[in-house]
Write a structure and sequence with these properties.
- The chain is α+β, with helices and mostly antiparallel strands.
- The protein has eight helices and 19 strands.
- The strands form four sheets. Strands 4, 5, 6, 7, 8, 9, 10, 11, 17, 18 and 19 form an eleven-stranded mixed β-sheet that branches.
- α3 (201-211) crosses α4 (218-243).
- It starts with a strand and ends with a strand.
Length: 377
């Protein structure tokens, strides 16, 4: 047994360092983000990420316009160094409405400059919101009207501008690696922020699932359930990366067509013609891993099921807890291909990387295939 950033770890089934949320009770299996297998062993440069909030910029792209009329304000908000729930609280105070009535599509990074949409109920007779600073690093950029509250997960993608400082390494190899990632994609891991700093959400999630109950806070319960699902998904993907099969279809895989949410049944082919195998090879579809819920074991068959069972040995407590919580099973793509991936060396030792990825994917999963963070955390 040895220490890893405040948590106990051991070498487990797959040979990686794992956090032991509970020895022998089915709650092992957490692999810290930096210990997850990389698709490419030739990460050509190292540098410093997130030296300051402006080094990590995110812009949410809805993929549609709010509509222009209706009983809701849709506000494009830029926030710096704060969480999405905090920004919602600021908006609630500004417009005198409960925070639960504030809508947003996705949670964005705290240690960043992020631009995203929020919705606020419009009260009769009040003036239209104007762009400007509010409080705590929250600024309204644009205001529109819409007919409905903004719901979670409706935006199309997120666009990133990421600065890497104090860079050392081979720039030609870095350029080649960028081209490779743009073509082949990267493992679609859940980022480290999903598990809390140094994985601190993992023991709390295990305690909640062991008791088959939950914390008083609905937000905390949702966060811990998400932590557990993400842990299992990352473990399956880690195993497939280690075996070299993360970006190829194996027998019994459920695949998801790029840009869609619902996965095809095992061995089903896309309606548009061609086989699932051909679509995955052409990067028009991706193999999937489990977002665990009731009946998850029946979502894949043959070799794919054997791979997932082997990867999740020791995780029976997580699985049973998620099933008892009543979550519906789902599938998530094992691969994400960033669009418009580009880079430049803005000054000596400073690289700027730009790209867009679909909602739900993590920029850190892309960056870890391009560069090593010299000062993680």
């Amino acid at each position: 047994m040895q220490s890893f950033e405040g948590a106990e770890v051991r070498t487990g089934l797959l040979g990686e360092k794992e956090s032991c949320a509970g020895e022998g009770d089915g709650f092992a299996g957490f692999i810290p983000f930096e210990a997850l297998a990389r698709a490419g062993s030739d990460v050509p440069v190292c540098g410093r990420l997130r030296s300051e909030p402006g080094d990590f910029r995110v812009e949410e792209a809805l993929g549609f316009e709010p509509g222009g009329e209706g009983p809701h304000h849709w506000l494009l908000v830029c926030k710096t160094g704060c969480t999405t729930p905090f920004a919602a609280q600021v908006l609630g105070e500004r417009f005198a409405v409960p925070a639960r009535e504030i809508g947003f599509s996705g949670l964005k990074d705290r240690h960043a400059v992020t631009t995203q949409w929020f919705s606020v109920p419009a009260r009769p007779g009040e003036p239209e919101p104007e762009p400007g600073e509010l409080a705590g690093g929250v600024r309204i950029v644009r205001a529109e009207r819409a007919r409905k509250k903004l719901r979670r997960g409706v935006h199309a993608e997120n666009r990133f501008v990421i600065v890497l400082r104090e860079v050392r390494g081979d720039r030609e190899a870095f350029a080649a690696r960028v081209l490779h990632v743009a073509r082949e994609g990267v493992p679609n891991y859940f980022g480290g922020q999903r598990f809390g700093r140094n994985g601190r959400n993992v023991p709390s999630a295990a305690r909640m699932l062991r008791r088959a109950g939950g914390p008083a806070s609905r937000l905390a319960r949702g966060m811990y359930l998400s932590t557990a699902r993400s842990l299992l998904f990352n473990r399956v993907l880690h195993r497939r990366v280690e075996s070299g099969g993360w970006n190829a279809r194996v027998a019994g895989d459920a695949v998801v067509v790029a840009g869609r949410r619902r996965a095809l049944a095992p061995d089903a082919d896309p309606r548009e013609g061609g086989t699932a195998q051909e679509w995955v090879a052409a990067r028009r579809a991706h193999p999937t891993g489990p977002l665990w819920g009731r009946g998850s074991s029946g979502e894949v068959a043959a070799a794919a099921r054997r791979l997932e069972r082997a990867a999740l040995l020791g995780c029976e407590g997580w699985q049973a807890g998620l099933e008892a919580a009543g979550l519906e099973p789902a599938r998530r793509a094992l691969r994400v291909i960033p669009s418009d991936l580009d880079w430049e060396e803005r000054s000596a030792g400073v690289l700027v990387v730009t790209f867009a990825i679909p909602r739900g994917a993590f920029a850190t999963a892309v960056m870890r295939e391009l560069a090593r963070d010299r000062h993680p955390g």
